[in-house]
Amino acid sequence: MNLTDLYDAILNGKLDRAVAVTNEAISEGVLPNEIITNYMIKAMEEIGNRFEAGKVFVPNLLMSARAMKGALDLLKPLLQGETDAYVGKIVIGTVKGDLHDIGKNLVASMFEGCGFEVVNLGVDVSSEKFVEAARTYNADIICMSALLTTTMNYMKVVVDDLKTAGLYGKVKVMVGGAPINEAFAHSIGADAYTSNANAAVIMAKKLIGAA
């Protein structure tokens, strides 16, 4: 068995191959951390770099993220208790009133592929749910997504409620989505805005000092 096959499978979006190689590695006793850190994360970082450079596109990212997630699902049960196995913990969701989740799910997959533990709250997520999840899971970062101009202002409600809950500053806030920009993020008190999944991973690592 050659674990570079796993790297190649994820890079090329080959789900079945990624799962098969991961199963082999598990049966041969390779440590989950080694598989994730040395092969899976590196493959996702490379596909992210190629996306940034315009060499691959969103469908390629999605395929790689899918392959990575398939392999990661096999390893997750073996990671219980290994707190240092993750870079950080992220709570992510699309804000209340908004039902778009393709972009948000891609970002979530990239985070998982790059070593974060992700709590995906889904779509139409209320401020209460974001705050409660941040507290329950002891999150490092809350990531909010919106695709509609009518829902983007709800992000400020979440930020304000984090302040009320005494979590603002302890939990970093990242925002993204088609109508969002740097100026808007700044105006509502978010820590960062990113325009794509790869940039989100880079920024998240920077925010929690893991870059």
UniProtKB/TrEMBL annotation:
Top-level division of the source organism's lineage: Bacteria
One Gene Ontology cellular component: cytosol
Pfam family name, one: B12-binding_2
GO biological process: homocysteine metabolic process; tetrahydrofolate metabolic process
Segment forming the signal sequence: none
SUPFAM superfamilies: Cobalamin (vitamin B12)-binding domain, Methionine synthase domain
The keyword ATP-binding belongs to this UniProt entry's keyword annotation: no
SMART domains with a match to the protein in the record: B12-binding_2
Keyword set, alphabetical order: Cobalt, Metal-binding
Cited InterPro entries: Cbl-bd_cap, Cobalamin-bd, Cobalamin-bd_sf, Met_Synthase/Corrinoid, Meth_synthase_dom
Any GO MF annotation of the entry: cobalamin binding
Family of this protein: Belongs to the methylamine corrinoid protein family.
Entry protein name: Dimethylamine corrinoid protein
Protein source organism: Bacteroides fragilis (strain ATCC 25285 / DSM 2151 / CCUG 4856 / JCM 11019 / LMG 10263 / NCTC 9343 / Onslow / VPI 2553 / EN-2)
